[in-house]
Design a protein that fits this description.
Elements lengths: L1 H10 L2 H7 L7 H12 L1 E2 L14 E3 L2 E3 L3 E3 L12 H12 L4 E2 L7 H7 L6 E5 L4 H13 L4 E5 L9 H6 L9 H8 L2 H8 L19 H11 L6 H10 L3 E7 L2 H9 L4 E4 L13 H12 L4 E5 L5 H9 L4 E4 L1 H10 L1 H22 L12 E2 L9 H17 L3 H5 L1
Parallel strand pairs: 4-11, 5-6, 6-7, 7-8, 8-9, 9-10, 10-11
Antiparallel strand pairs: 1-12, 2-3
The protein binds flavin mononucleotide (FMN).
The site of flavin mononucleotide has 24 residues, from α2 and α15.
């Protein structure tokens, strides 16, 4: 996966590569999404017959080749020309769900056409213009969308320094330094010249008066809605009768709200470290949420997944499914559709071999007993860890220290 990242960095213009490979403010949460996975160790087992294993699983009742979906990512068609269509085809052929972002370059209709009517998932933001949201949902229904992913963690946009410095826009503004940088990426611009899809395809042509890049960026900046509430989730639930996935949950209470609002699944996510810098990593947020609500709703997670081992760790901590954002984008930027397939192959192979070394035949069978902490000790459920910690503190404070006894 690291090779794909390095190749993508070489082939994609700086503005778009850095849009993908960045987090908000200090990027602390962005880094910890990956680093916290590395702290979790795996328990090797031997002497178990592991010949008949498979990575197949189900997500929301649908069979998948491995429990990994493609996360919604904005401007994917700027990592590679027609990026969303290519990634959607790669995911469909591999047997995993593809999620299209509202902020995509290729439109809902483009992707539906690229897949010849096969289903995909669509991510929606609640925007100030509620009539636009209603129309988006109607378009999603017409395009045979199989599940709606409602993202709640972007009522305002996190500040990403690199985007400000690079003057991010789609299509890119041709300043001298952008132009010089793009010239050095011949594969990218050659493909980009051959497509007509270079701006936000779900928006341009669907909102009156939005055509030019300036008007579009103004519209987008004004449209994220700070009044977003659980009432809006209930409103979407009434509009959309298919599977509803609520994305951006980091807190047990919010998970309960999602259940009450009628969601079919939640995604434990911090938006890949792009929103609240300082939030805990997704893999740390996952176990408590899965323990508390995992029997009432399907729990998914994303953030920091760069390998099949990360997928297995998330499953062991209670996720029924996972999503990849940057791992897909690196593949796409590096090698187009073939690169997305490659990224999925890498993750599947790592998942398969790791299951084998841990003595498991199915991803759905793993639980936290396959995990060890940094000291090689069992990975405790959050509740037990807390109980132990509080007993320890209580024991410490109730014990009279030797000095006090003497005194
Ligand atoms: C470049 C980029 C754009 C994104 N755009 C969206 C988006 O439009 N909608 C959304 O719900 N999440 C968006 N996300 C968040 C992803 O869906 C996902 O939560 C995140 O990428 C997972 O972390 P990972 O990249 O470490 O796998 C974006 C992430 C990236 C990296």
């Amino acid at each position: 996966m690291e090779d794909l990242r390095v190749l993508a960095k070489r082939r994609v213009p700086r503005m778009f590569y850095e849009y993908a490979d960045s987090g908000s403010w200090t990027e602390g949460t962005y880094r910890s999404n990956q680093e916290d996975f590395e702290k979790i160790k795996l328990r090797q087992r031997v002497g178990v017959s592991i010949e008949s294993r498979s990575t197949a699983a189900t997500m929301l009742g649908r069979g998948v080749a491995l429990p990994v979906a493609i996360a919604p990512t904005g401007l994917t068609g700027m990592q590679h020309a027609d990026g969303e269509m290519l990634a959607a085809r790669a995911a469909r052929d591999f047997g995993v769900p593809f999620t299209l972002s509202t902020m995509s370059i290729c439109s809902i209709e483009d992707v539906a056409q690229a897949l010849n009517g096969d289903p995909f998932w669509f991510q929606v933001y609640v925007m100030r213009d509620r009539r636009f949201v209603e129309r988006l949902i109607a378009r999603a229904k017409a395009a045979n969308v199989g599940a709606l992913v409602l993202t709640l963690d972007l009522p305002v946009s996190g500040q990403r320094h690199k985007d400000l410095k690079n003057g991010l826009s789609a299509p890119p503004k041709l300043t001298l330094s952008n132009f010089a940088n793009i010239l050095g990426k011949p594969r990218w611009w050659w493909n980009m010249l051959r497509t007509r899809r270079r701006t936000l395809g779900n928006i341009v042509g669907h909102i009156e008066g939005i055509g030019s890049t300036t008007l579009l960026s103004e519209w987008c900046a004004q449209q994220f809605d700070p009044t977003l509430s659980w009432e809006d989730v209930r409103w979407i639930r009434r509009l959309w009768h298919g599977k509803l996935i609520v994305k951006g949950i980091q807190d047990v209470q919010d998970a309960h709200h999602a259940i009450a609002a009628g969601a079919d699944a939640i995604v434990v996510s911090n938006h890949g470290g792009r929103q609240l810098d300082g939030a805990i990593s997704s893999i740390r947020a996952l176990p408590l949420i899965a323990e508390q609500v995992g029997t009432q709703i399907e729990v998914h997670m994303d953030g920091g997944i760069r390998s099949g081992q990360d997928v297995l760790k998330a499953l062991a901590l209670g996720a029924k499914g996972t999503y990849i954002g940057r791992s897909m984008l690196y593949g796409l930027g590096a090698l187009g559709q073939r690169g997305v397939t490659r990224a999925l192959e890498i993750i599947q192979k790592e998942l398969d071999l790791t299951m084998a070394f841990c003595g498991y035949l199915r991803p759905g069978d793993v639980d936290r007993s396959i995990l060890l902490d940094e000291f090689g000790l069992p990975y405790l459920p959050q509740q037990s860890a807390r109980l132990l910690a509080s007993r320890f503190v209580a024991a410490q404070t109730s014990q009279t220290s030797p000095e006090l006894r003497v005194g």
